[in-house]
Amino acid sequence: MKRIPVLRVPLYRFAAALIISAMALGTISWVSAYAGDEPPTETTPERNPDARLERLFAREQEWLVRQAERLERSDEFKAKAEEKLATMKEAGKDTSALEAALERFEELVEEAQSAHDEAARILKAGQGFDSDGKVTDREHARETVIGAGKALREAHANLRQAVVEVRQALRQLRQERTEES
Asked: Is 171 exposed, middle or buried (0-12, 13-18, 19+ CB in 10 A)?
């Protein structure tokens, strides 16, 4: 079988020329569009540290509200787990792991609530911010954002760990139940 050189066939030549010209024109248009952009100024949010602090402060306030809702729902979660515990106790199952997990759940939720309250206190004081959430003192605002963020993350971690431990205990009890069946 005889090989046909690629560039000798007119269709291949045309396609190659089209691709090369498209690449060349694309590069030219990218360069001109890129050259037309102005470099960021000090007033753009990317370069304005006050705007960043203000965004973080607002985001942490929203996080505080959502976390308060989750803490309220933790009581519902605990009640459902206690119902399952009672059902399994009536069935004569060993529920010691779930009971221990529920005790640990209460401890972790209390720790989460404590950290949440600390974050609420820091955000309510709002040192470095005015009543509209605008930065008045950059260093105090930075400390506020860092302190509140740390407390919110701690509360989140504790609450998450509490739920994970109870779910693991419930999963283990379900597996034991299915193995017995």
From this structure: exposed
